[in-house]
Amino acid sequence: MDIKRNQPDLQARKEQIISEVIGKLRRHFGRTLEEATPSQLYKAVAMTVRDAIMEKWTATRKARVQQQKKRLYYLSVEFLIGRSLVNNIINLCQDEAYRQALEELGVDLAEIEQSEPEPSLGNGGLGRLAACFMDSLATLGLPAMGCGIRYEYGLFRQKIVDGSQVEMPDNWLDDGNVWEVPNLDDQMEVHFGGQIEEDWSSGQLHIRHTGYHTVIAVPYDIPISGYDSDVALSLRLWSARAPQQLDMSLFSRGEYARAAEEAELAQTISKVLYPEDNHQEGKMLRLQQHYFFTSATIQYIVKDFKKRYPHMPLTRLHEKVAIHINDTHPALAIPELMRILLDQEGLSWEDAWQVTRNCFAYTNHTVMSEALERWPLQMFRELLPRIHMITNAINEQYCHDLWEIYPNDFGKISYMSIIAYDQVRMANLALAMSHKVNGVSQLHADILRKDLFADWARTEPDKIIGITNGVTIRRWCVKANPGLTDLITEAIGPDWIKDADQLQKLIPFAADAAFCERFRRVKAENKARLSNYIASKMDIKVDPGSLFDCQAKRLHEYKRQLLNALHILYLYRRLKEDPAANIEKRTFFFAAKASPGYYRAKEIIRLIHAVKVLVESDPVVREKLQVVFLPNYCVSLAEVLIPAAELSEQISTAGKEASGTSNMKFMLNGALTIGTLDGANVEMAQLMGGENIFIFGRKAQEVENMLRNKLYHAGELYETNRALKNVLDMLVDGSLPADHPRQFSDLYQSLLFGDGGNIADPYLVLDDFAPYAEAQEEVQRVYRDTQEWTRRAVLNTAHAGFFSSDRTIQEYNERIWHLEPIQMERE
Ligand code: 26W
């Protein structure tokens, strides 16, 4: 794929790339083309791409400053951006020029791409969403900056040893990072601990903060180029370092260890990404991380505003600044902005309150109560004494305002308050102090309004809105699936890449036999690509002719990988009982990291491996079924897996998955979905019509009702459904290969009896088992009709345009941020 407009320059650009690459090799590595290692080649090519982006970057900054437009700061503890090289080449619309240039040099782009370390600076959906948003913001030319943490170690690398997850450190920066630029001019000091004194001696309140520890925040900026756009935005990641690398006075007294200690302590703040997803622990280091990057960011925002608008008072900050917090992790930015406005800029409390509320908006990404952030009050007070005072004052005013609305309703006010029972509740802080709060799908927003945040929705009816997530077409189709990209472009022209609604033009092609045949061929090629990848990386042979069935996402009970695994056991039993059973040949792919401390999630990984071994060991069954667990799920793996998928498993307990985004990526790449009416699956079904998606299971309302009224009794299903009982018994009767006979009894117990006072099977695995098995029957019935399957696959791609993150960002902009695009002069 290449933008035709650039064709006349192609030859010249190609020659320029060749000479630049050779020049970079010579100047930076002292090597000729022949001598260069793959890593040096990668870096040399990357540097040429970086040069091109740098020009846009400078021009964008200049235009933004001149045009004085309102700017968005998107704060997130995670930006799961994935590799940059190929994506940047695509976004610069230079893929054809690079392809030809590298071909002439005898260099394989796909191969040198492997030398790029992947920045795994996120756990899952929330972090990847932030990366898709940056791509869309840049493509739409909106003035924005992403702000986060430059973790030295990203999410752990997952290895599987004897069927169990083992975590290895992800030292992605070891070999340097071509894409980042340290910006020493914008370093900030962040203060922790100490004491606060109030000084009224001048008649006005002055706050004196003493005895604190200082950590220096150093920004590293990564340029994010828009697709076919002259705009390049910055992703600013803050790195922590000590004010003095070594305390020389200690050093000269021979106290080497203590001298290094302070420096070490400061640097641990940005050392490692917490591997928790949907589960919060009140760890001091995590609170330090949050304050570290939000304080540095807010200081920078105020500094930049004062520099750009020297004559505008800070009471008008919100006219030029929008701040968005990606879940509550950056919510400390709220009291931090108040602190700076009050203590440093001398605003009144009322003004600071108004400005802050006008600047902030908050996206909620989960309804799981164990994920809602709460900090122990004492830790909060000791680490952030001034922030604690301000948060307290915010709470007092907020409760006072609530009292006016709900006089004497102590219950409600204590439920909605920000500080209570010795805890600071970050969601309540974000709810109180944002002018908009959004859920990430329509169902999720409904649940927020009617359930989790119902009291806030009643208090401020227009505040909570739903903006359905999206994914970037550039990475998830153009980059990941060049075959499909070419096919679509040939059919409907290239504009869909920036205007994904145009994918609807593919609808008539679902009835076009020749197109469908080519669509099938693209899928077959992608299946072959994945099969080769697995053969080379894992030494496993899969049958590219089998149905490729994929579940790729974090491992969590609510996502129900367990339901998928139990269903495979059910098919296994059917084949054992009747080797001629009518079962379509399938390869079940799983890819999932479990949080290191999440015991049951790790048990589920073990179970999947046991099922895999069992299936492989039987000569009859293995002719029909294969289980593949792909270790270390990450963006680069997703780019190979998703285009090859035929069936996408989106089988969470209804009401639990806020949106899901892999569902959108699979749909875009022409996989059919088997799923519950959860998150964005609901909207997928509405858009395409229910006939093109395999929907099964309880609805969110039913789940909620069954759980609330204790109407669900998993044990009864075990007694009444023979097939289900047989499958469950396999967990404890020695059928499965395991280290010890009781290996899977924890899973068995949790499904049938519950544990620690919890009800049995709170995610309704057993309840949805029979409907799931039925839906899977329907899947294989349709799959056998190749033409019908392809027709539906084309319709999936054709309806995926709504799930472009360009649409999502436009909606955020219209309803929350109100930014105007930067005007660039095109040469
Ligand atoms: C504090 C620990 C912690 C860490 C991460 C709690 C919660 C999270 C995230 C909110 C988890 C997450 O990634 N949520 C996912 O966000 C996606 C983007 O909106 C949604 O598509 C997924 O449904 C949601 O699970």
TrEMBL record:
Keyword flag Cell membrane: no
UniProt KW keywords: Allosteric enzyme, Carbohydrate metabolism, Cytoplasm, Glycosyltransferase, Pyridoxal phosphate, Transferase
Positions of modified residues (N6-(pyridoxal phosphate)lysine): 665
Signal peptide: none
Pfam family, one: Phosphorylase
Gene3D superfamilies linked: Glycogen Phosphorylase B
PANTHER family named in the record: GLYCOGEN PHOSPHORYLASE, GLYCOGEN PHOSPHORYLASE, LIVER FORM
Annotated protein name in UniProt: Alpha-1,4 glucan phosphorylase
